Amino acid sequence: MTRARTARGLAVCCLLLQAACHRTEPAGFLPPDGGLPNVVLITIDTLRADHLGCYGTRFGDLTPNLDRFAAGACVFLAATTPAPATLPALASLHTGLYPGRQPIRTNIGALPTNVPVLAEILQQHGYTTAAFFGNSLLVPKSGFRRGFEQYRSFVARPPAASDASGADMALEWLGSAPRAPWFLWVHFMDPHGPYDSAPVAWSTGLEPPDPLPNRDLPVSATNYGLGMIPQYQVLAGVTQASAYRMRYRGEVRFSDAALGRVLAALDAPATRNRTVVVIAADHGESLGEHDYYFQHGWFPYEDCVHVPLLLRVPGGGARRVSQPVSLVDILPTVLAGLRFPALPGLEGRDLGPLLRGGELDDAAVFSVTAYLNQMTAIRRGHWKLVYTPPPPAPFAGDPWAGDYSPHEERALYDLGADPGETKNLYATDRARADQLWAALASWQGTHDIPIGRRTFPTPDEATRQRLEALGYGAP
Predict the structure, then answer these.
(1) Contact status, residue 327 vs residue 86, Cβ threshold 8 Å
(2) Is the pLDDT of residue 329 over 80?
(3) CATH 1.10.3720.10 at 38-361, yes or no
(4) What CATH architecture applies to the domain 372-455?
(5) pTM of the predicted model, to two decimals?
(6) Would you say 315 and 32 are in contact if contact means Cβ atoms under 8 Å apart?
(7) CA–CA gap between residue 406 and residue 217 (Å, rounded)
């Protein structure tokens, strides 16, 4: 009897110990009471990571609100967008799939109903949902409407500032006390060109030091071209490259102020302790790197594909993660943190271990550009390979005619020593380059991205007009 009682006592102790251990394990994103948290996704169009203070910007105090948020969040220092254009980037974020596995590779197309999206999944688990967006490409026919009970545009109509209006809409919805748990997505827009959303005063005090050389730029006859100002970006009487860069930084500062009002509402104790907040950009912007001025979408260089990614969870603390990650990781991370079943076939990874100070195995991240000739890139660690396919066959009206590289090319960069991607090490480190190329070629083959000449979809008239208004088009 004594031995039996002792055995039962030991068993009870083991169970209690196991329960205690279970209580100390990370509870994903769940608040202490175990209920489902609210989820907020904030995406900022065309925001370069290197313009945030928490990423070490050299351009002054542009993002005090984002930096304050970062002080209590996990900051992913090496996040990459799957595409340097809005629709394919956001499609990958909302599905956890790279372009090719989800069908949008350019700014033309729509998410099909048979591809699960984040809002739809959360809604099926009882979330109240709302989205407010400032990019006209996100109209309901884009497919991003699915899963949202409210889906409203704040596309700018002068003299209203788009992001100020977006913040107003988000705050009005939050003030209506939506039934919890709720999911809110806000897509801010002001850093996207033309850089005239903010009054000029927001750019004062942002003069050089500027790491890029100044020059007087010609104006392109189209919305494209190297070494020139695209048509949609033209500011009356302004031709100096440094002046446009200064105006871009004013836009970033202006957008941060609008975002700060939303973050202040989310910082109310009752909300903060029950809310997961994810902040990211869809892509960056070239400000003259590689002779590409005030545009994005064509090159997969870091100025356009390195994006900010910040994540704050109830009870979480500040961390800085240098391991490369991708926007495709957001959906699986949210689902795992909420303890929802994983979706089959997701390409993104759960970043939960990194949020908790752990590690993940090194994995490659990929990008594909949105214009002909659709370049691709792979990054693993601080090494990056950029593939330029052969130029497309000549055709009338091609806005990039004369700008394509004349030959198929592969370039290897050491981002640790050369963050500006100026030194091609392909010839001197062929073994590493060949390894990365094999992985990139395999990825292209499984994502319907042919090696060699690419093709490009043709938009309908309404889509063409929206693209032209945003400075895009369909060559």
Answers:
(1) no
(2) yes
(3) no
(4) 2-Layer Sandwich (3.30)
(5) 0.91
(6) yes
(7) 24
